[in-house]
Amino acid sequence: LQAEFDLGLREASTPEELEDLRLKWEGRKQGRLTLLSSLWLKEAPAEKKKEIGQRFNALKDHIVSELQRAAGSRGQNVLDAEAIDITQPGTRRRLGAEHPLIRTWNEIVKIFQAMGYSVGVGPEVETDYYNFESLNFPPGHPARDTQDTLVITGQERKPLRDRLLMRTHTSPVQIRTMEQQPPPVRIVIPGKVHRNDAADATHSPIFHQVEGLCVDTNITFSDLKGTLDHFMKALFGSSVKTRFFPSFFPFTEPSADVQISCPFCGGKGCRKCKYSGWIELLGCGMVDPAVFGFVQQKQPAYDPKKISGFAFGMGIDRVAMMSYGISDISLMYSGDLRFLEQFA
Ligand code: PHE
After folding, report:
1. How far is residue 276's CA from residue 234's CA, in Å, rounded to a whole number?
2. Is the ipTM of this complex over 0.90?
3. How far is the CA of 262 from the centre of ligand 1 (A)?
4. pTM of the complete model
5. Ligand 1 atom index nearest CA of 135
């Protein structure tokens, strides 16, 4: 029997085989040792009992100690195999890449932070009041049609001003900021906006804007021009020029659209600027006194006789696409690794 056990022990090479062997010999119900003691030892004639008992105990001691020794040394093997050699160089894990949109977003924010601006946020689900009315788009005003709005259904029983919609621009956060804080204000608000636009290479129903707002005593159109000119030079390079064209927004007066000289061809004309030498990038203007009027319902300090301000709004996606040569906006929202890995 001992020889049979020793052979089994030599042949058991894995922890599983060792466990099978242990059960075969030491198992409490069907193990050989149990059977031996209950059948064989008990049935032995009285005069042989002593000798058989001794031989049984010797066999049992041998099996128990050999199995323990085997388990111990196999255990050591497992520890050896799992030991960590701390002198080996580590395995490098690939880092994720910053999304081009977020990279552009951060670059823009940083430039304004360096000019003393803080960063604000506001809700993407807005009320009609903040998205339109307080920005001087009265109910039924045709300028509302310039922003194809996605509305939340089932609110027909509420007064118009309380009805919810997906914000079409970041401008409502101008109002929310001023309601929370008396002047002076210098803030940029990057964020997601939504419009009911059909998707194509340059349009997506979701896109991003960064809003800027500066309110203080004696803020003039020159401050607006100087701030945006500095911003464009910081973002695109110091040789970039800006020019302002008359425009219209209900919440600014006067309003302007801003173009920059094409940073790719230096204004000579190339594909990126459609051979015009100029690229239109944002809308801006002096905060309309009517907007301060709405804010004054909560913050009387916004008295248009004492303070003035400028605001601007710019699409982030378009800047990112231009900077990184991305021709289709849907790539920005695809999550396609083949696209994203190019920015690692
Ligand atoms: N909110 C405007 C838009 O989405 C942009 C803008 C912001 C214009 C601030 C002027 C001042 O078109």
Report:
1. 22
2. yes
3. 22
4. 0.75
5. 1
